[in-house]
Automatic annotation (TrEMBL):
Matching SMART domains: WD40
Domain Anaphase-promoting complex subunit 4-like WD40: 261-323
Pfam family, any one: ANAPC4_WD40
Classification via InterPro entries: Apc4-like_WD40_dom, Quinoprotein_ADH-like_sf, WD40/YVTN_repeat-like_dom_sf, WD40_rpt
High-level lineage: Bacteria, Pseudomonadati, Pseudomonadota, Alphaproteobacteria, Hyphomicrobiales
PANTHER family tied to this protein: TRANSCRIPTION INITIATION FACTOR TFIID, TRANSCRIPTION INITIATION FACTOR TFIID SUBUNIT 5
Protein name as it appears in the record: WD40 repeat domain-containing protein
Length: 324
């Protein structure tokens, strides 16, 4: 049976992840909590809005209401990476070669590993950021579509149009597809080789969480009373194919999904704080955590896939150990 080690905090958990072996929980008040031989914490911001670990898992990049972008180490040391004055940092993304992107208003900023900065201005607010799995290519979610930049060059960006407000963005692990979350209850996607559209609709709520499976063959999503898992095995992605519906519950909505790093399994977090794990092949379910005080707002597996860090909107956080 999985075991749960709780960490009772106060406030909305924006990110729950691992830096190396250290579980880290970033809260909206700007304090980042760590479990490294005990409970320690670091005040990173005056109001924290967004956070993402670096690709090597060695640092947590955070952005806040104070206009600062910080890098936090597993030991709790904080480094100021950038500052944009009295503007909110609403999104961050981490890429290869220690590149960091962050957004404030209509501008996406790219900070290279040597400290150089590049500003990429857009006609409307930048809502989401993601780096492609290979190379230095940045995807920007915006109103009426997405923009793809090669920020290390002066090449003209690629514009992908689709009417509506696009709020989040992700590349498939093989780099063949781009998917955005939308203000309406839907996803939109593009096949990047030919610009072909993919529409994934029918959700009863907004999709706020996306997670690719270990080999990129599936995309798990929130926004329904089950985890909606789209198949991406074929050359045209999910078009013409029905998604899996895993962990169906009639009394709670799925608020977070986190695919296992090695197996075709997804952790499913619900609006009542419950967490299930479900296997794609046979839809078998295992209870990881009973319902708690608030909706699951953040979840990440460690690299081995043995421990799951989770956080909620009300601050009851913790670690699920499935190897116990």
């Amino acid at each position: 049976m999985p075991t749960v080690a709780p960490l009772d905090l106060t406030g909305h958990c924006v990110s729950a992840c691992f830096l190396g072996d250290v579980p880290v929980f970033a809260l909206a008040d700007g304090v980042v909590h760590r479990l490294a031989g005990g409970h320690a914490w670091t005040e990173a911001h005056d109001g924290l809005l967004t956070a993402a670990p670096t690709r090597d898992g060695k640092c947590l990049i955070t952005g806040g209401e104070d206009g600062k972008v910080m890098s936090l180490s597993p030991e709790g040391s904080v480094e100021l990476l950038a500052e944009v004055g009295r503007k909110w940092i609403t999104s961050v993304a981490t890429g290869p070669q220690d590149i960091v992107a962050f957004a404030s208003g209509k501008v996406a900023y790219v900070r290279f590993s040597d400290g150089r900065m590049r500003e990429l201005e857009h006609p409307r607010s930048v809502e989401g950021l993601a780096f492609a799995p290979k190379g230095v290519r940045l995807g920007v979610a915006r109103y009426n579509g997405a923009t793809l930049h090669f920020p290390a060059t002066d090449s003209k960006p690629t514009e992908l149009e689709w009417a509506g407000a696009h709020t989040g963005i992700t590349f498939s692990p093989d780099g063949n597809f781009l998917v955005t979350t939308m203000q309406e209850n839907a996803l939109h996607g593009w096949k990047l080789s030919d610009g072909r559209h993919m529409r994934m609709a029918g959700y009863p709520a907004k999709v706020k969480s996306l997670s690719w499976s270990a080999k990129g063959r599936w995309l798990a999503t929130s926004g329904a009373p089950a985890a909606i898992v789209w198949p991406f095995q074929g050359k045209d992605g999910p078009m013409g194919k029905a998604p899996l519906e895993l962990g169906t519950r009639g009394d709670a909505m799925v608020t977070q999904v986190a695919c296992h790093p090695n197996e075709d399994i997804v952790a499913i977090g619900y609006s009542d704080g419950m967490i299930l794990a479900a296997r794609f092949a046979d839809q078998k379910e295992v209870l990881l955590r009973r319902a708690g005080k608030g909706a699951i707002s953040a979840m990440t597996w460690d690299r081995e896939g043995r421990r799951l860090a989770f956080g909620t909107e009300t601050g009851d956080c913790g670690i699920v150990d499935i190897s116990a």
